[in-house]
Write a structure and sequence with these properties.
The chain is of the alpha+beta class. The two termini are 28 Å apart.
């Protein structure tokens, strides 16, 4: 589409928006709310700001008040709410009408947009998403410079934070790392927000397992089962518990006979049987792999001596591949029982539930590029594709601490039998997650949900004589949706009782797609703390169409007389028939591209029929 056509349309739209005069009554309410803010009465100010917003004031007043409310949320450390307000400004108010980088907006509105960028960065930082915060703060500095907003500057603390974020610990020894490291590519588009609701489950405090991290957990027949793990003192556990989601009570599982020793490991469910894999500090090579029958409360040790040589692993990840009826294991830290010291692995293991046999593909046997050896990474499978994200790498030499990797990989598991492992590096698109370790992902409805973890950075010790490793614990949740290229990441705006920042937690999903965080550890005032709480993330509160664009077909859908020539996104006039939103809400588009962009920007939240599946348009029906 010609720029000569778009520019006059944008100018006309901006002039129409700005021609609406401010309402004096809303101005009085805003001044009173500002007074409450100045008096540090942030809750009262939010209440008054919200009343004005709900009254649908003119555009200029609306964006100003939302920006002010975001600042109040920041003062109350309600970072997810501050992010919601900031993103609603960037994504729903400014972006659909005009790109603020053009010189069509007056200076007052440019200031509002700049403040939204800055507060978005502060909110992301509070949520632990340091890379997202860095991107937002850099966007703020670039936009204020390009728009000549010389009076808007980051405050002292934010400037210090920006300087710290800009110094990646990877830069200090980048030359020592293998060349197969893949750089993250940032996307300038505003992220798509996905809604959900957090709820803390109130378990009986008198009878529940000890707090822990790095445990194994599965969902089975209405209960969350956990085994093993360790506490912050590195003491391992060997007990098993089950949490009933209906009555919210724990019960300890007892058994007789031989059983696994205390350990941190992985556990999966296949055909009603639990499969446990991993080692303890003193494990022998024939006690790595166990099955557990929950109906009989009986363990069975699986003999692996007759098969391929399996390494003793900890910090690995194991994932079910339903299409291959197998368990896929990658990475981890351990040894090969040949006297070598602990190291990170980059081998791929597969256990077939059909043949009950293991296969092993050492990293050295992989053709082409492949992920660096790692542990405590994030791993999931969607369809036939295995995804591996981030994790911890061995340092190149003893003087350098462990490194948080910054790469993203994909493997087509259908090629295993013919070509072996074939890896492809991916870039990160959308709301970029910060590189992290000891995080976890779970797949629900064809998407991967990621939560928590920690990143590492080098900081000067209080003696100013040496650098020590700092761990930044995170509490953000993101959703990955596979796509034709590299897929798309989105920030999850979970409301309600959110879990605290943590690492070493575990995610499980029930049959309807709700996600649960199970235990974990965190750092409070430089002291490590283990947790034994469970939080539920309820996606049923939101229409699943938040990520699924409804049908579009310009050849079979007539345009009504009301919208007969105007695209709902680009606002341009056309002489041809336009395609309608598949939810039959009266929204029309000139192309699939316009529909997709409009859906991501705002229509996934504003479509009046999106929550009613009966309103989906039959493409063979004529209006």
């Amino acid at each position: 589409m010609s720029i000569d056509i778009i520019k006059p349309m944008q100018t006309k739209m901006v002039k129409e928006v700005l021609s609406i005069k401010d309402d004096p009554f809303f101005d009085q309410l805003k001044k009173e709310a500002n007074r409450l803010y100045s008096a540090s009465q942030f809750t009262e100010a939010i209440s008054l700001y919200s009343r004005v917003i709900d009254s649908n004031p003119p555009f200029n007043q609306l964006v100003t008040i939302i920006t002010n409310r975001a600042q109040c949320w920041l003062k109350l450390n309600q970072f997810h709410k501050a992010l919601e307000d900031s993103d609603s400004l960037i994504q729903s108010f400014f972006a659909p009408i005009n790109d603020p980088k053009d010189n069509l907006w007056p200076k007052e509105l440019k200031r509002i947009y700049a403040k939204a960028l800055m507060r978005r960065g502060q909110a992301l930082l509070g949520l632990g998403n340091r890379y997202g915060a860095l991107r937002a703060m850099l966007d703020f500095e670039r936009y204020t410079r390009e728009s000549n907003l010389v009076d808007l500057k980051l405050d002292g603390n934010s400037q210090i934070t920006l300087n710290e974020l800009s110094r990646s610990p990877m830069d200090q020894f980048k030359e020592s790392l293998p060349c197969e490291r893949v750089e993250i590519q940032f996307s300038g588009n505003p992220p798509l927000l996905i809604e959900g609701k957090w709820m803390k489950l109130n378990a009986d405090v008198k009878s529940r397992p000890k707090a822990r991290e790095s445990h194994a957990s599965v969902y089975f027949e209405g209960e969350i089962w956990i085994f093993g793990g360790k506490n912050t003192n590195e003491n391992e556990f060997g007990d098993m518990w089950a949490f009933n989601l209906t009555n919210q009570k724990w019960r300890e599982i007892k058994w007789k006979g031989e059983s696994p020793s205390k350990r941190s490991c992985t556990m999966l469910v296949w055909d009603g049987i639990f499969y446990l894999f991993g080692s303890s500090e003193s494990e022998s090579d024939d006690k790595l792999f166990w099955t557990f029958d929950p109906k009989q409360s009986k363990w069975t040790r699986m003999d692996t001596k007759k098969e391929i040589k399996l390494p003793a692993l900890r910090g690995h990840r194991a994932t079910l591949c339903h299409t291959r009826r197998s368990m896929i294991v990658f990475g981890g830290e351990g040894h090969d029982f040949d006297g070598d010291k602990n190291r990170n692995f980059g081998d791929l293991l597969e256990y077939s539930f059909v043949t009950n046999q293991w296969k092993r593909w050492p990293k050295s046997s992989v053709l082409g590029i492949s992920p660096m050896q790692r542990r405590s990474h994030i791993q999931w499978i969607i369809g036939n594709d295995l995804y591996v994200l981030f994790g911890m790498a061995d340092p190149p030499h003893e003087s350098v601490p462990d490194t948080t990797l910054e790469d993203f990989w994909k493997m087509d598991l259908r090629l295993l039998d013919s070509s072996g492992p074939v890896w492809a590096p991916l870039s990160l698109q959308g709301n970029v997650p910060e590189p992290r370790a000891k995080s976890v992902a779970v797949v629900r409805n064809g998407q991967a949900v990621l939560f928590g973890g920690y990143s590492t950075s080098l900081s000067m010790h209080f003696t100013k004589t040496k650098q020590v490793m700092q761990y930044n614990y995170m509490g953000d949740a993101l959703v990955f949706t596979p796509g034709k290229k590299d897929g798309h990441w989105a920030f999850l705006n979970g409301k309600g009782e959110r879990p605290s920042n943590r690492a070493g937690t575990f995610l499980v999903a029930d049959e309807v797609g709700n996600v649960y965080t199970v235990f974990g550890s965190t750092n409070v005032s430089d002291k490590m703390h283990d947790m034994n709480d469970i939080h539920k993330l309820d996606f049923t509160q939101t229409a699943e169409t938040a990520l699924k664009i409804p049908p579009f077909h310009p050849d079979t859908v007539k345009t009504s007389k009301l919208h007969k020539k105007t695209c709902s996104r680009c606002k341009l006039v056309f002489d041809t028939k336009l395609g309608q939103c598949g939810f039959k809400c009266g929204t029309y588009y000139c192309s699939i591209d316009c529909q997709t962009k409009h859906w991501d920007e705002e229509h996934n939240r504003t479509c009046v029929n999106a929550r009613d599946p009966s309103k989906v348009t039959n493409l063979d029906e004529m209006d």
